[in-house]
Amino acid sequence: MTATAQTSPHSRIVARDDRRPGMFGARPAARGMGACRQAAWTFAILLGLSALAVDPAWAHGLAGNRLFPATLTIDDPFVADELAFPSFSRAKGADKTTETDFSMELAKTITPNFQLSVAGTYVLLEPPDEGSTSGFDNPEVGMKYLLFRHDPSETLISIGLNWEIGGVGSSKIDAASISTPRPALFFGQGLGILPEAVSWLRPLAVTGTVGADVPTSGGEGDHLTYGFTIQYSLPYLQSYVKDIGLPAPFNRMIPLVEFAFDTPLNGPDNGPTTGTINPGVIWVGQFFQIGAEAIVPMNGASGRTIGVRALLDIFLDDLLPKVFKPIFQ
Fold first, then answer.
1. In 3-state terms, the chain is what percent helix, strand and coil (to 5)?
2. Could you tell me which of 200, 221, 232, 235 has the C-alpha nearest to residue 264?
3. Whole-prediction pTM
């Protein structure tokens, strides 16, 4: 789960700030229903085929000895019962408008491999030399399916579809009047299989996503959204490589860098690729994790100054295992 879409958190394909005017350029325009139907059919076919590759899921991104944490900027390659609340981000966009987002996302497993989610964001906009304005953005619902998990190689692969429900949010913050489906593919890969000669690299892991924004009506405006993370797990180092005696809280930390990008494909907002580089750290406990990152714009179209993002993610299935568990085992 990521800062709510995303911001994907875990909203998410890429963090939501990159679709609001002033953060990474204007909101994408809409496009015809034909492309939307094509994307929906493609996702339906993938979901149908995935039934042939069902592998029992493991909560909170475990694959073998590898724990993939819930990242802050791009979405995660696993399913779980969890609550991302609160999520917070603050950054200045290309038009010098400062945006502050307060988000929440709830994810619930329906089967061990399939989850549904709902997310919402309250937005505060502070344009230069003008009064501030605020309001709720459009809510977003989503589903994700764990296609593949291979414990020996520490590999996870999932597919998902988020749907921004247009016309619900406040016009004061320019919430879109049309809906936008966002199909995506997610992956996670640990490096625990590396040989002993390079054992210090085993705590490294990479996660990533490739997706698209496909507005449902009103003309063209498709966006390609993609990103990846590089993580170094200190708990993995301590437990499976060498115990170097790290004290608390460092023995539960996972330093990481997230890279998130957005490429307009057509429409009136067609322009350069925008994105952010997000260095930070996550602390993982038994029932929750906390994380914080800097938001560093990739270019002038991506933002003006360095921002900040933070997340508290609660593991509901660990905190209340009798309540939060898959509905169908």
1. 15, 45, 40
2. 221
3. 0.84
CA distance 329 to 326: 6
Give the per-residue pLDDT at 144: 98
Pair 244, 238: CB distance under 8 Å: yes
- Which distant-in-sequence residues (6+ apart) come within 8 Å of 100 by Cβ? 88, 89, 90, 123, 124, 126
What are the two backbone dihedrals, phi and then psi, of residue 173, each rounded to the nearest 5 degrees?
-110, 15
Contacts 24+ apart (CB under 8 A), 240-247: 240/65, 240/192, 240/202, 240/203, 241/199, 241/200, 241/202, 241/203, 242/199
Tell me, what's the pLDDT at 217?
75
pLDDT of residue 99: 97
- Domain 16-319 CATH assignment equals 2.40.160.40: yes
Please state the φ and ψ torsions of residue 221, each to the nearest 5 degrees.
155, 35
**Bridge pairing between strands 62-63 and 140-150:** unpaired
CA 31 to CA 218: how far, in whole Å?
5
Q: What is the mean pLDDT of residues 10-22?
A: 34
Compute the distance between CA of residue 104 and CA of residue 29 in angstroms, rounded to an integer: 25
**19, pLDDT greater than 80:** no
The DSSP H or E segment spanning 315 is strand 307-315
Token readout for 78 is 């696993």
